[in-house]
Design brief:
32% strand
Length: 168
Amino acid sequence: MPPHPDGYAPDDHLGERTLLVAAAYVVLRRVGEGDDEVLLQRRAGTGYMDGSWSVLAGHVDPSESVHEAAVREAAEEAGVVVPTDALRPLTAIHRFERGGPQVEQRVDVFFEVTQWGGEPTLREADRASAMGWFPLHDLPDPVVPHERVVLDLLAAGAPVPAVMSLPR
């Protein structure tokens, strides 16, 4: 078969190749009474981890950078304006199921944000049932597990690895 004009063979991404689903996560943090606080929302109506608390997050749309996705998700979910230069890279998590389907190969890019415009409010009531600020050392239960890993490292003041894989 002749190669595709972009240099790839037509079947180069089939079968044994990993197809990653990318998502952007925004960890909105502020100084609270005696402890740093993080903005969380309780998932509802999404079909994934409904009832669990999570940071602002969403999939990267086609033709969109992960930075643009983070800014868009913060606006859509909480109504806040996050300048791109306020996104501080925190970590990337490669989540996968060994032997699982290609759609379960995911890369989650986490950004920490301490400066934004506007007051966060719940904007997607069809996807979240509550939103609030919580001390990093006293998070509600349950928190989406892979997000909890990141938040627990922040609460402990521990270094957050640049890249993590789950399972390890």
